[in-house]
Design goal:
The protein is α/β, with parallel strands linked by helices. About 40% of the residues lie in helices and about 15% in strands. The longest helix is centred in the last third of the chain and has 27 residues.
């Protein structure tokens, strides 16, 4: 509990407070209140009932309560405020902490899924401000927080009674209209707003699609190396995952034919995660032909597709799909900010209603105010202006990365061309060298991921080392400084 002079917002609760008649009522009351304070069952700075109120509630004399309170006063567990009442004031150091989960010796009875979730340690995002080269972070410093705050205030100033109740599980109608227009004009994807389902980010979209399309024991394919949390989503409900190799043209579609039982394939065509290559048009057409012939589905994750630095963006798989086999997933995290937790699925018409009904079973719908604010953000043109601003910034940061790397050549490693996205990857000869370089960078305050983190378990290529670096979240000066530092410590 924090040491605070403010009254606790939680009321005093008499539940479970029983006194045995004829056995020293004042002592019993004192011991019961003291034990509750020491166990943390009564919050610090909770206002206690008056002696008269507590006496009436427990059907005992006021004198008994006064004696119990006096003893608690004497030992420092409670204190009086003139004209305000009596409050718990036990020192925070005296409050017993809840036992750590590891100290509890009772094995919980978990499902098979629960047992899998209990094996790894609790996963927490790195604390503090993102360090240079952290993956998955856009230019958060450029987000127009003042505009967003004004739109939020506008939402709450307007009549909200009919807008803050339960809402459409598919998402805010205006937001889906805006998204359909944005995807049509900026990404070349023609879709009806009724095909769009708003989600709490891409991860929820992955879980939903996996649950809808995979039975326990079914097989899904994904790029290898690939996005680890996609593998988690595909296997969460009992599915199996096979890894498909990646080369300079993206996922090697011919390898899919060796797995005729694959029901769906997860891909990142615009900017493969983590290698950074773009899926060629020929491979896109091959992948679509495979899905149609195999009666399988494709999950297209367009996580940072807005960022393209050279050449014309290739058509989305969903825009090339003519047989209803592609589920397109997008997110606002890489354009707005990750904490927003808003994403979307563009589903084939035949799958829209099942996905909406499934979303209803998850958490009913995403935050109504956040959806409404994003809809206005788009309707008033702020979103499109911000996309342009973010593209300019990411290009400048990409250029700083390329120029600085070519000038200083850290570790003697060459950087590949960066045509898209917010990260890049390079190969190193061994995993030992990879780990050593990452450790040295971390000691210098630079955050780099190892390529080995992205290989599927059991992959024969897990002994291939590499470095994966994000450049979207750091400004040009920070990128240049970090590259100079790496050049010194990787000698």
């Amino acid at each position: 509990m924090q040491n605070s002079t403010h009254a606790s917002p939680f009321p005093f609760d008499l539940t479970g407070l029983h006194l045995a008649p004829g056995k020293g009522l004042a002592v019993q009351l004192y011991q019961s209140l003291r034990d509750r304070i020491l166990k943390g069952q009564i919050d610090r700075q909770v206002k206690l009932p008056t002696t008269r109120e507590l006496a009436l509630a427990l059907s005992i004399s006021r004198t008994t309560v006064v004696r119990a309170y006096d003893q608690l006063y004497a030992e420092g567990y409670i204190s009086a405020r003139v004209g305000d009442g009596t409050y718990v004031s036990a020192p925070a150091s005296d409050i017993a902490r809840t036992p750590a989960a590891g100290a509890i010796d009772i094995a919980p009875r978990l499902s098979e899924l629960g047992q899998r979730m209990a094996l790894p340690a609790k996963v927490m995002p790195p604390p503090g401000k993102p360090r240079t080269f952290r993956l998955g972070v856009p230019a958060l410093d450029l987000f127009p927080g003042d505009v967003w705050a004004r739109l939020q205030a506008d939402f709450w100033r307007r009549g909200t009674e009919n807008r803050i109740g339960y809402s459409d599980p598919a998402g805010d109608p205006q937001l889906r209209d805006m998204l359909a227009g944005y995807l049509r004009n900026s990404r070349g994807l023609l879709c009806d707003p009724d095909q769009i389902i708003i989600t709490a980010g891409t991860q929820q979209a992955l879980f939903m699609c996996a649950q809808l399309l995979l039975n326990p024991g079914d097989t899904a394919a994904m790029e290898n190396p690939g996005y680890p949390r996609a593998a988690s989503a595909l296997t969460l409900n009992g599915g199996k995952v096979v890894g498909i190799g990646v080369d300079a043209e993206g996922i090697i579609t011919q390898e899919l034919h060796a797995h005729p039982d694959v029901r769906l394939a997860y891909v990142t065509p615009s900017h493969q995660y983590p290698t950074g290559v773009t899926l060629s048009l020929a491979r896109r057409l091959e992948l679509l032909a495979w899905a149609e012939a195999n009666q399988s589905y494709i999950l297209e994750d367009d996580y940072d597709g807005e960022y393209r630095y050279s050449g014309t963006p290739l058509a989305l798989l969903a825009s090339l799909d003519r047989s209803g086999r592609v589920l397109h997933m997008g997110t606002f995290s890489k354009i707005a900010f990750p904490g927003l937790r808003l994403g979307y699925i563009v589903a084939p018409p035949a799958l829209a209603t099942p996905l909406i009904n499934l979303r209803m079973q998850y958490d009913r719908h995403s935050s109504v105010p956040e959806q409404a604010v994003m809809a206005e953000f788009m309707a008033q043109g702020h979103f499109q202006r911000h996309v342009r601003r973010m593209r300019r910034a990411s290009r400048a940061r990409r250029d700083a990365m390329v120029d600085g790397w070519q000038r200083h050549q850290p570790g003697g490693i060459s950087l590949p061309e960066i045509d898209a996205g917010l990260h890049c990857s390079v190969r190193v000869p061994t995993v030992r060298q990879q780990d050593d370089m990452i450790d040295r960078a971390a000691e210098a305050g630079i955050e780099i991921d190892g390529l080995t983190r992205f290989w599927l378990p059991g992959s024969a290529r897990r002994n291939e080392g590499g470095l994966v670096m994000g450049f979207g979240g750091a400004d040009e000066a920070s990128i240049t400084t970090a590259i100079k530092t790496l050049a010194k410590i990787w000698r």
